[in-house]
Amino acid sequence: MSVREDIAEARRRDPAARGPFEVWLTYSGLHAIWWYRFAHRLWRAELRFLARVVSQLARFFTGIEIHPGATIGRRFFIDHGMGVVIGETAEVGDDVMLYHGVTLGGTSAEHVKRHPTVGDRVVIGAGATLLGPITIGADSVVGAGAVVLVDAPEHSLLVGVPAKPRPQRRDYSHDFWQDDWQI
Q1: Can you name the residues that pair with 165 across neighbouring β-strands?
Q2: What's CA 90's distance to the chain center, in Å?
Q3: Most Cβ neighbours (<10 Å): which of 2, 69, 79, 103?
């Protein structure tokens, strides 16, 4: 995982990105992931208190809280990241994109897997909340404001409160709000 790869991913995902220096300097989502990686190394080295201090500093500076115990894959991108929270036992795959206000939260105070597992190439919309030890399959999309409490297979679309997994429709040739998109 490299800074160059992260910057290239941000430029690929965000059409507003004008250049690598601007991305490096101004993208709080990237800053948060860089702080997280350092804190995660400390966490794995059993320096838990120091790891938590680093993660809280990152939260203070970026508005994004990523627990150092979480597991996050490559090319992870947080766009407009203010308010993102990722819990300790969360697992996030490669090429995942989150928007602002996303929560990958727990539902238990027990020392068990209590946060979501998100597959590769998943997009999670603004304000979405995923709670508990659920699994979101690869290539899925979680809509803005969705509250996800159940597992979803690969290629799912999750919208609503509570969100229910639906297959993603590949034919976008007609109106978005007809047929199987009705809620």
Answers
A1: 158
A2: 10
A3: 103
- pLDDT single digits (tens) 110-134: 889 999 999 999 999 999 999 999 9
Q: Which position has the token pair 């899925």?
A: 140
pLDDT in tens, 6-46: 898 888 888 888 888 888 988 999 999 999 999 999 999 99
Cβ atoms of 66 and 72 closer than 8 Å: yes
Residue with tokens 């203070």: 60
C-alpha distances (whole Å) from 9 to each of 94, 106, 111 are 11, 28, 34
Strands, DSSP E only, in the chain? 65-66, 71-72, 77-79, 85-86, 91-92, 97-99, 103-105, 117-118, 123-124, 129-131, 135-136, 141-142, 147-148, 156-160, 163-167
**DSSP string for 2-31:** -HHHHHHHHHHH-TT---HHHHHHH-HHHH
Is residue 81 classed as helix, strand or coil in its secondary structure? coil
